[in-house]
């Protein structure tokens, strides 16, 4: 987990934002929606809606597609703490966006349940 702050945006159209190449970025396009997760400082001008102030927790991968229950276990721990998460998966990893106000409590709860959490 770094010190970056992320946002979840809803866009009118697909226009790739300028961003730090090493930062996490996720663009999802469905029939009726375009969603972008990017560093907060890189929010494009054409956003319709935005949710700000997320921290990013990354499940270290690569994770084999046959593995079952990894996100379920993590989300169950956080649900018991009443912590909302926004999950995004890539080919090799799972990423959880957690409100910055909840990140300390999230890390503590995960560690108490045997998860190793490394801060970067």
From TrEMBL:
It holds the Pfam family ACT_7. SUPFAM superfamilies: ACT-like (SSF55021). It comes from the Bacteria. Residues 49-112 form the CASTOR ACT domain. Residues 4-46 form the A9CJY8-like N-terminal domain. This is Uncharacterized protein. It comes from Christensenella minuta.
